[in-house]
Write a structure and sequence with these properties.
CATH architecture of the largest domain: 3-Layer(aba) Sandwich
Number of helices: 19
Strand content: 5-15%
Radius of gyration: 26 Å
CATH superfamily of the largest domain: Periplasmic binding protein-like II
Protein name: ABC transporter substrate-binding protein
CATH topology of the largest domain: D-Maltodextrin-Binding Protein, domain 2
CATH class of the largest domain: Alpha Beta
Keywords: Signal
Subcellular location: Periplasm
Shape: globular
Largest sheet: 7 strands, mixed
Family: Belongs to the bacterial solute-binding protein 1 family.
Low-confidence stretches: 1-25
InterPro entries: Bact_solute-bd_prot1 (IPR050490), SBP (IPR006059)
Distance between the termini: 82 Å
Mean pLDDT: 93
Number of domains: 2
Length: about 425
């Protein structure tokens, strides 16, 4: 017997005597899957996302999805595209559905269709609400997977409604009803200072979205489906912005620019009786409002309706193929009906498929807390959120124009005409 064979035999015998198993090949380390998620601070949502990643990794030990909290939506897309250009693209990121054209123009993302192979995959992709797919598909391809999606809704203080002689069981259904209710709900102190505004619509961050919440019921779209043309100077757009400006002139809405982030707080502190904002604030208000509140669909004018909003999963094409596949599996896993139902309850966002609302969990939640169903019920009359090529620049032009009108530095008509001219210049090369 050769020396090495003899040693192996001795070692094997000794191991057997000591009850040790023979050495085995080490399991391969799980594949790292970087996942950029838009949240600026820690808190309940990060715990939920961390939990999803941990549960997915446990069920798929070959992968290690790692959430990276990258700031606001705007900060997250900048970081994701910077990483993409430097050759270190994330496998996936949740970014605004309206970033779709920008991500395509940057050649940053892979079509979701490339990963859809089985009948189960196809059924899953067809299961999302059509209203959410409007900001996820273009040119015959699907580019994003709906995840934290929303519509805009009205929250109203039922106690304030009772006090003002209004019916607390229903929200104002038309612009006329909304204006009249706002007048009755506005309170002043002995010195004539407003202590409670009838209505508050935020105008920082997402002013374009709030404008679209008024243009949609006024029967006009702000952009074409291809994202190459805008209609800012349309008479119905100017009329919608004027409606908003006139609320401030009537003293039933705060003057000037209103902060997005403080609007839910103002509602909870009874500084505003009605607020117009994302359904994504629902869980926060449910947990923290010290009074009974209602949720209503957006008040109509010539029609009803709201823009959709929120974020999609995107898969980055410069990430290694194995990471892309893992990202697809994660997006598919996290949007299954039971998880989509739980996510809706945890966050306040709309569950992204009808199947999620058919789960026993969400059915019971909807029965116990019917306010959670309003945003979903608004989907059939909802339109795609405003989105164009070079979306960040065009959106900034529109945001600035809305703020100029609310600040009184321009009329609604002048603000929209100037914005149209600038947007046309930016979009010239895409026509």
């Amino acid at each position: 017997m050769q020396r090495s064979t003899f040693l192996k035999s001795i070692l094997a015998t000794t191991a057997a005597m000591l009850g040790l198993s023979a050495p085995t090949a080490q399991a391969a380390d799980p594949l790292e899957v970087p996942f950029y998620y838009p949240v600026a601070v820690g808190g309940p949502i990060t715990k939920v996302i961390d939990g999803y990643a941990a549960d997915f990794n446990k069920a798929h030990p070959q992968y290690k999805v790692t959430p990276i909290y990258a700031g606001t939506y705007q900060e997250t897309i900048v970081k994701a595209l910077t990483a993409n250009k430097s050759g270190k693209a994330p496998a996936t990121s949740v970014l605004l559905s309206t970033d779709m054209f920008t991500l395509i123009d940057e050649d940053a993302i892979a079509p979701i269709d490339d990963f859809v192979k089985t009948d189960a995959d196809k059924a899953w992709l067809k299961g999302f609400y059509p209203a959410f797919m409007a900001n996820s598909q273009t040119g015959g391809k699907t580019w994003g997977v709906p995840f934290q999606r929303s519509t805009v809704v009205m929250y109203y203080n039922k106690e304030a409604f009772k006090e003002a002689g209004l019916d607390p069981s229903k929200a104002p259904a038309t612009w006329k009803e909304l204006s009249e209710a706002a007048k009755k709900l506005t309170k002043k102190d002995a010195n004539g200072n407003v202590t409670q505004y009838g209505i508050q619509i935020p105008s920082t961050g997402f002013a374009y979205w709030m404008l679209q919440t008024l243009t949609t019921p006024n029967g006009v779209l702000l952009a074409n489906e291809g994202g190459t043309k805008v209609t800012f100077d349309h008479p119905k757009v100017i009329e919608a912005l004027d409606f908003w400006v006139n609320l401030t002139k009537d003293g039933v809405h705060p003057k000037g620019v209103v902060e997005w982030g403080t609007t839910p707080k103002d509602f909870m502190e009874k500084k505003a009786a009605i607020i117009v904002t994302t359904t994504g604030n629902l869980t926060n208000l449910k947990a923290n409002a010290k009074f009974d509140f209602g949720v209503g669909q957006i008040a109509g004018n010539v029609r009803k309706g709201s823009p959709t909003g929120g974020g999609n999963f995107y898969i980055f094409k410069k990430a290694p193929k194995e990471q892309q596949q893992a990202a697809f599996e994660f997006a598919k896993w996290v949007t299954q009906p039971e998880r989509a139902a739980q996510w809706s309850m945890d966050s306040g966002y709309v569950a992204v498929s009808a199947a999620a609302y058919d789960t026993p969990t969400l059915k019971k939640y909807g029965q116990d807390f019917p306010q959670a169903l309003v945003a979903r019920d608004q989907l059939p009359v909802s339109v795609a959120e405003f989105s164009t090529h070079d979306n960040q620049r065009v959106t900034k032009v529109l945001n600035d124009a809305v703020q100029a009108a609310l600040n009184g530095t321009k009329t609604s008509a002048q603000a929209m005409k100037d914005a149209q001219k600038e947007a046309d210049r930016i979009l010239r090369s895409y026509k």
